[in-house]
């Protein structure tokens, strides 16, 4: 169902791909938007328990698109160093394919804690707890991963 990467030599292992997802600070969510135009939006996220989680307003283009067509893709570039003399960049990236859904109950709470920890790990525990308990006007969206691949610049293979 999913295509094989054309440049197999640049394919990263599943462990390396997960490392990119864990280390990245933002990614781009792509879904099918209004009038079937692709809709891609940068988001903060966390990779947690084998899923991608992010927060979202309860309404808007992103939520409308995902609720109508839950199949999405999500891309992260973790490393991207421009090498001007070679007219390229040395990169590591990951792409995920899966289905988006609203996380509920304990899953929502655990995912929100993971998001807060990732983006405010140096804040006092009391502040983090207040943030989690006080956020009632946002969804936590889960992407249940069906397929993922990682790719790196050929110059980084084996290095």
TrEMBL record:
- Gene3D superfamilies, A to Z: Electron Transport, Fmn-binding Protein, Chain A (2.30.110.10)
Q: Which SUPFAM superfamilies match?
A: FMN-binding split barrel
One Pfam family here: Pyridox_ox_2
Q: What is the protein name for this chain? A: Nitroimidazol reductase NimA, pyridoxamine 5'-phosphate oxidase superfamily
Task: Name its species.
Answer: Thermoclostridium caenicola
């Amino acid at each position: 169902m999913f295509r094989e990467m054309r440049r197999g030599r640049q394919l990263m292992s599943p462990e390396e791909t997960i490392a990119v997802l864990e280390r990245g600070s933002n990614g781009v969510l792509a879904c099918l938007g209004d009038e079937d135009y692709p809709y891609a939006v940068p988001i903060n996220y966390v990779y947690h328990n084998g899923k991608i989680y992010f927060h979202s307003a309860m309404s808007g283009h992103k939520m409308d698109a995902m609720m109508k067509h839950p199949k999405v893709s999500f891309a992260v570039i973790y490393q991207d160093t421009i090498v001007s003399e070679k007219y390229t960049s040395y990169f590591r990236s990951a792409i995920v394919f899966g289905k988006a859904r609203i996380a509920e109950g304990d899953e929502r709470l655990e995912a929100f804690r993971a998001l807060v920890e990732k983006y405010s790990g140096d804040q006092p525990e009391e502040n983090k707890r207040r943030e989690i308990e006080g956020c009632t006007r946002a969804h936590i969206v889960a992407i249940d991963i069906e397929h993922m691949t990682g790719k790196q610049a050929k110059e980084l293979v084996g290095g």
